[in-house]
């Protein structure tokens, strides 16, 4: 069995960024923190912390940090059944795609007596955080459960190709054609964002080379569309009011739906049951993009 004070020291170092700050948090000396972490490294036979400012986790350290968080979550669940058991508020590390975080995900966290560290990654890649053992749960586009995890469907987040009216009239006055799309600036979250290309290929029946602005911010994406910087695929929950008010227009009645799944580590599943229930409730009620655009 691993030494819990050593796990607490590792967690404090990685979360505070230094041995000195960890010592202040734990009420011990920096030397004591260093000894605990070094002893843990000797026990597991791997370097856990990359010493520097800030201190950073190695892959092994990241996995042990997750283990410490799992233990804290299990102890909180145990304390709910046995009030005499002392428990600290657990910190949960989650991987979530930016559009979910900007639209429906945060309300699921309110009212839960937990602390959260949220890693933002594309829905097609957020499962990698689970594969590394770095997070307890993730919102992902992958339906097949990662090894050691349960997968629950959340429904499909609907997207629409949007632009401001003046941009539409300037670039797409003759309709949505492959030629127009090769000239009109598009918006792209990052190099892995395929939504615009996928929609354009479906709309035109062929792959289209899209000129693009790149900006890794969901709200910045919306603002760029409002300002006429380009067109892009926006989650309908984010732009529904803009569409109703006419500040943005849908370029086509054809939308795009992105199925999402909640994957959670089986070891943590019971302790995270309240979070799982809240996430699934927050994701209810989406209509398909095509239905919403009628």
- Residue share in helices? 40-55%
What is the ordering of alpha helices and beta strands? Answer: HHHEEHEHEHEEHHEHEHEHEEHH
Q: Please mark out the parts with pLDDT under 50 across 5 or more consecutive residues, or reply none.
A: none
**CATH-derived topology of the largest domain:** D-Maltodextrin-Binding Protein, domain 2
Q: Would you state the CATH class of the largest domain?
A: Alpha Beta
Overall strand count:
11
Number of helices: 13
What distance lies between the first and last C-alpha atoms, to the nearest angstrom?
59 Å
State the domain count.
2
Chain-averaged pLDDT: 91
Features:
294 residues; alpha/beta; Arc Repressor Mutant, subunit A; D-Maltodextrin-Binding Protein, domain 2; 2 domains; seven-stranded mixed beta sheet; two-stranded antiparallel sheet; 45% helix; 19% strand; elongated
Structure description:
With 294 residues, the chain is α/β, with parallel strands linked by helices. It folds into two domains: 4-61, Orthogonal Bundle (Arc Repressor Mutant, subunit A), CATH 1.10.10.10; 91-294, D-Maltodextrin-Binding Protein, domain 2 (3-Layer(aba) Sandwich). It is built from 13 helices and eleven strands. The strands form three sheets. Strands 3, 4, 5, 6, 9, 10 and 11 form a seven-stranded mixed β-sheet that branches. The chain has a two-stranded antiparallel sheet with strand order 1-2. The chain has a two-stranded parallel sheet with strand order 7-8.
